[in-house]
Amino acid sequence: MTETITIRGKGLYVEIHGPQDAPPLLFLHGGPGGAGSYEFMKGQGDLLSKQVRLIAFDQRGVLRSEALDEHDPLTLQDLIDDCEALRVHFGYERWSVLGHSFGGFLATLYAHRHPQSVEKLVLDCPALDFDLSAKYMLKKSADEFLKLGDEAHAQQAHDLREADLSPKDRFDQMVTLTLALKEHRDKLYWYRPVPNYFGNLLQTSGISSEEWGRTGMHVKKIMQDPLLFTSLLPLLPDLQCPTLLLRGESDSTTCDIQTAAVLRDVKRSEHLLIEEAGHVPAIEQADRFAEVVTEFLLRP
């Protein structure tokens, strides 16, 4: 079932799969912006919904949700308020939340600010500290440059990793530097890269180019929120809900420091590494991903 629901003055595209009486799970996509909820639901909509009531939405201003203009405000708090308003709209007292990458950052903030609303938390290759994630991506990038014999760019990645920069400056420069990997950049995200994966995703989605283009305004506004570049690691001891941290074997976002912090500071936390997967285990190892998430959610 799909529908557009007006939440706090804007239409949000919402997709729902699974039995009405199954445990509800809210999915928060990565990005910021990214492919909205489309990519995840394409890979997991039928799998996770066998025993879970899976609810996903394109975040405010993204893809199939109503477009934002220059005058529309947008902060991380707006996205959190949207999550809570959707819970109230659907009449759930509590629900579990699964956040991928940036969505893991958002899910953690939501669980921290609305602990009474979140039953369980699944963090899928999350970026809980954008500076640590940028440094980890730079380390992985240096390795890829060296494999290509590009010692100059490998040294740039090393120097940028060690430089005394603000988290936002390091992140912005990291994104620019990784573009020099060209087609090899996919190796930062995939265990086994598929040529032209995202191009094919866009072409076969049936979603208009205008809708894909909406994401730019969302990204512009969220990247201006200083909270995005503030580490969430100090908030972890306050989380009360059972938490599952998932990482792909070759993921380049969730470094060991972030993983250790979750396991040390979240009272009821566990960690699982999904083999032969990178940053998107929900796609590369779809059956395994659905299996472990479902088992965690249904566990008493």
Radius of gyration: 18 Å
Task: Report the structural category.
Answer: alpha/beta
* CATH topology title of the largest domain: Rossmann fold
**What's the domain count?**
2
β-strand amount: 15-25%
Overall shape: globular
Layout of strands and helices, then pairs:
Elements: E1 2-7, E2 10-17, E3 24-28, H1 38-48, E4 53-57, H2 76-90, E5 95-100, H3 102-113, E6 118-124, H4 130-147, H5 151-162, H6 167-178, H7 197-204, H8 209-213, H9 215-222, E7 243-248, H10 256-265, E8 269-274, H11 281-284, H12 286-298
Parallel strand pairs: 3-4, 3-5, 5-6, 6-7, 7-8
Antiparallel strand pairs: 1-2, 2-4
Helix pairs in contact: 1-12, 2-3, 4-5, 4-6, 5-6
Characterization of the model:
By secondary structure, the protein is α/β, with parallel strands linked by helices. It folds into two domains: 230 residues, Alpha/Beta hydrolase fold, catalytic domain (Rossmann fold, 3-Layer(aba) Sandwich); 57 residues, no CATH class. Helix content is 43%, strand content 16%. The chain has twelve helices and eight strands. The protein has an eight-stranded mixed beta sheet, sandwiched between helices. Helix 10 links the parallel strand 7 and strand 8. Helix 1 crosses helix 12 and helix 5 runs antiparallel to helix 6. The radius of gyration is 18 Å and the shape is globular.
